[in-house]
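A reminder from the course coordinator: this example appears on the midterm review sheet, so study it carefully.

Given structure:
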């Protein structure tokens, strides 16, 4: 079980600067890349890599609180990470989001290994 002490807050953006239904790719240190999206239903965070192949979901399109993978068009529900159709069959991980004083944070598990090489590359380039 993950407790609050096992997590860390990752600052994403000022809420008012996030365009609606426009994915924001983030590369936190020591964590696989995540995609954060502001929708009419709230702000959601999911792992950035599609569970079907190594593709960045932040390059996809958002509609009706789902993000469509740019490669084979599986749509993932942003609330649950569950794919709505093939070819992907596994859910992407979702992460809690909090908005405090207009600032958007994602709660990430502390010490998670970097399993996505592109996330590490992005971190190194920063
Ligand atoms: S790579 Fe995302 S559905 Fe195939």
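Designed residues:
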């Amino acid at each position: 079980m993950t407790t609050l002490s096992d997590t860390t807050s990752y600052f994403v953006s000022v809420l008012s600067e996030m365009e609606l239904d426009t994915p924001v790719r983030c590369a936190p240190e020591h964590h696989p890349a995540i995609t954060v999206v502001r929708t009419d239903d709230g702000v959601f965070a999911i792992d950035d890599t599609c569970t079907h192949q190594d593709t960045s979901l932040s390059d996809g399109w958002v509609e009706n609180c789902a993000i469509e993978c740019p490669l084979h068009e599986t749509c993932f529900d942003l609330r649950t990470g569950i794919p709505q159709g093939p070819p992907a069959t596994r859910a992407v991980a979702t992460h809690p989001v909090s908005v405090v004083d207009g600032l958007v944070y994602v709660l990430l598990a502390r010490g998670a290994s970097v399993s996505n090489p592109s996330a590490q590359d992005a971190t190194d380039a920063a």
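The helical segments are 117-125. Residues 50, 52-53, 55, 69, 71-72, 74, 87-88 surround FE2/S2 (inorganic) cluster (CB under 6 Å).
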